[in-house]
Amino acid sequence: MNDYKIINDPVFGFIKIPRGLLLNIVQHPLMQRLTRINQLGLASVVYPGARHSRFQHSIGAFHLMSEAIATLRQKGNFIFDSEAEAVEAAILMHDIGHGPFSHVLEHTLFKGISHEEISLMMMGKINHELGDQLNLAIKIFKNEYPKNYLHQLISSQLDMDRLDYLRRDSFFTGVNEGNIGSARIIKMLNVHDDNLVVEHKGIFSIENYLTSRRLMYWQVYLHKTAVGYESVLISALNRAKALARSGCTVFAPPSLKFFLDNDVDAKWFDEHPETIDVYRELDDNDIWCALKVWMHHDDKILSTLADNMVNRHIFKVEVSDTPFSEEYVEEISQHVSGHLGIDKNDSKYFVVVNTIQKDMYDMDDDNITIMYDDGTTKDISKASELLNVELLSKKIRKYYLCYQRI
Predict the structure, then answer these.
(1) In 3D, which of 221, 89, 217 has the Cα closest to residue 145?
(2) Phi/psi of residue 224, each to 5°?
(3) I need a surface site. Which of 66, 71, 216, 265 has the fewest CB within 10 A?
(4) What are phi and psi of 361, to 5 degrees?
(5) Other CB atoms within 10 A of residue 373 CB
(6) End-to-end alpha-carbon separation of the chain, Å?
(7) For the segment 136-182, what is each residue's pLDDT rounded down to a tens digit?
C-alpha cells in the first residue's frame, strides 16, 4: 500500500497527501464541505470558468506549504517533522470556516465574527475527534508558537494562501496578468531572525507578485459586475431575514433557516454550541435552493431579488473615485421605488452604496523583507527599484453605487 494519496490538480499537477493525520483531515466532512463552496463566490458571473472550490484551493496551498518547508530545510533551517506536519495541517484547514459565496455571509446572516474565528472552532472540533493531534497546528495558526516564520507561511503578505489563490484564480478566470511565479518565490524563501525573508535574487518575482495581486483585485475580485451581483444576493438574504424575523413564512433548508430566524453573532456562537453544527451543513447549494423558491414568494421585493439572482438580472453599477452625493442616490431611489411600485423605505434593497478600499502593500502589516548576500535586509518598498514606495502603499478607495436596472 502506498503511504500517500495522489490528487491530480490542474494547476500544480500531482499532489501527494501523506496517509495519517493529513489524509484524515482531507477526508474529514468539514473539509469535504469546502467542495461545495466556490472559491470566488459570484465572480463566475464575469468569468464563467471561475467555478473552482475552496477545497481545491486548500489542497493547492498545502502543496505550496510542502514545497516551502522543503526549501527552508535545504537551506539549513531546522524544522522538526512534527512542526512540518503541523504547519501543513494548519494551511489545509485555514479556510475551513468559510461560508457560502466567500465573505457575503459574514455581514448578512451573521455578524461580528469572522471566518477565521469559525475556522478555529472547526479546528477545535476536528482536534477533539482526532485525539488532540492538532494542538501544535492550532498553536501555529494562532501565532502562539515560538517559531514566528511558521505562522508567516500561513498568514502574512507572502503566505502560501495568497501564492495559491493568485495562481489558481488566474488559471480558472483566464486573467493571465495574475499569473505569478510561485515556484520561483518559494525557492527564494529563507529565514532571518525568526522571520520569513526573500533572497535578493527573487526581488523581481516579488515585484511581479505585488503588481499581479493589485490587478487581480480590481480586475477579478472587485470587478464591478461581480460586486453588483453580490449586492443582489446580500439584499435578497437581508430581505428574507427581515421577513422571517417578522413572522412571515420564508422557505429555506434547515441550516439556512436557522440563520434567517436568529440574530447570530459571536456571543450567539458562544451561548449556543449547536450553531457550529448547523453552520457546517451550510453551503452554496442551500442558498441557490432557497433563491429558486423565493422567486415565487408573495413578497414582491424578495421575489424580484431572487429572480435577479437566478436569471442574472444584475444591478447596474456605477464606480467613482469620490462619494456619490446624497441627492443623486435619493433621485435613483425614488426612480427605482416608483418603477417597482414599492414603498420608498424599501428601496434600500434595490439601491446599495458600497465603499471598497484596497492597497497593494500594507506597510503596517507583516512586511515582505528582502535579504542580501551579506545578511542585511530591507523592506521591499525600499529594496525595489521598480515599485514606487508611495504607489506601493497607497490605499485605493472606490465608491460603488449598485441599483436595480429599469
Answers:
(1) 89
(2) -60, -35
(3) 265
(4) -155, 125
(5) 8
(6) 63
(7) 999 999 999 999 999 999 999 999 999 999 999 999 999 988 888 89
d(CA 143, CA 150): 8
pLDDT band at 393 (very low <50, low <70, confident <90, very high): low
**Phi and psi angles of residue 384, each rounded to the nearest 5 degrees, phi first:** -80, 135
User: Which CA distances in Å does 395 have to 27, 70, 365?
Assistant: 40, 35, 13
- What residues does 369 pair with on adjacent strands? 197, 379
Amino acid 390: pLDDT: 57
| Integer CA distances (angstroms), 343 to 36, 61, 248, 401, in order | 37, 48, 18, 20
Cα–Cα dist 255/290, whole Å: 11
Q: What angle do CA 59, 39, 30 make, to 5 degrees?
A: 60
pLDDT at 105: 74
Distance of CA 286 to the CA centre of its chain: 19
**Grid cell listed for 122:** 472547526
Cβ distance 21 to 132 under 8 Å? no
Looking from the CA of 305 toward its CB, the CA atoms found within 13 Å total 29
In angstroms, the CA 253 to CA 8 distance is 33
Sole residue written with cell 490542474 = 10
DSSP for residue 325: P
Extract the C-alpha cell encoding 178: 495574475
Length of the chain as a residue count: 406
Separation in Å, CA 374 to CA 50, 75, 126, 370, 389: 44, 16, 45, 12, 24
- The model's pLDDT over 341-352, given as tens digits with 9 standing for 90+, comes to 999 899 999 999
Query: What are the percentages of helix, strand and coil residues in the chain, rounded to 5?
Result: 55, 15, 30
Beta-ladder partners of 401? 318, 353
Alpha helices in 130-253 (DSSP H): 135-141, 148-154, 160-173, 182-187, 203-216, 224-245
Listed residue (324, 325, 347) closest to 334, CA to CA: 347
144 vs 57: CA distance, rounded Å: 25
What residue type is assigned to position 218 of the chain? Answer: W
The amino acid at 254: P
Contact 200, 373 (CB under 8 A): yes
Comparing CA positions, the residue from 337, 51, 107 lying closest to residue 231 is 107
